[in-house]
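Trying the structure run again after the queue cleared.
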Amino acid sequence: MFGVKKMDRVIELADYGICLFSMNVMEKFLKSKKIKSKKLLNYFQKNHDTYIDSLKQGIWIPFLPINAIEYILKLENNGDTFDEDWERKIEYSGFNIDVDGSLWIADIARLSDFDREDFANNDISYQTLDHQTIYAGFCFNLPSGKYNVSIKGYKRKNPLDHPCANFGFLFSLVEVNEFNEYKDPREDEIYDFNVAKM
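Done. Tokens:
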């Protein structure tokens, strides 16, 4: 596809955000808190203390609100970068993530009705009626450990026609011994991740 490199991972959002989490870490947290609801987004919205605790422990990171369109996802730990055709629009750092074996970067809608089977493979995808593959999430292999996460948002200097993605996010993870503080990405007065409107 013109404008998208062969190795680019392009996610198409059905909802208003992207989330990062490690499946094993998420499941341990849900079990420890006796959370049986599959509607995790709704649960975290209604239980603020549990939500804050999840951020402190690095259980997940929600990046929202952003437009429900296509984005290229890159992980700097894998040697990924955006080239000179892109302009960096945002950069935020200091978010916590605890990784156990792998890291998911997925459409946050997948936590509206959380089903472990959705995450059984290395990506979440489906076929449209015209046989186009749409991706809703990708699994990245990373060494287990605690990480501080930074996110950089990019926009193409010269937009390309659909179906090319004109926006993207670069995630960088730095391993730490422990989490000393936390940041809440839902603090709208501090964070704006919506690169499609910049």
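The helical segments are 23-32, 40-46, 48-56. Worth checking whether this holds up in the mutant runs.
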